[in-house]
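Thread: zinc ion complex, take 2
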Amino acid sequence: MIVEREVKPILHRKKCPACGYYTVYQAVPAGTQATDTCTHCRHQITLPWDNEVKSTIKNTEKMLRDLEDVYPELKALKNPGDHTLLE
Ligand SMILES: [Zn+2]
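Output below.
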């Protein structure tokens, strides 16, 4: 049986308030909090790691996936360091 590690980092996309790009963020959960880091500019924020935050991340991903039709650039946001500006 494989036990899923709770501290597995989560890569997700969002618009970074620090560098202004759409970037790949890495959330690292640690208990009730998570450190969320922009993999492009290293801007770091601490999030309460609760269901609300988790569903916000999920909803943002869903919204960005819908936007991929309009902005194919979003599809390129996959790996740490990736960033793009939407025209
Ligand atoms: Zn950034």
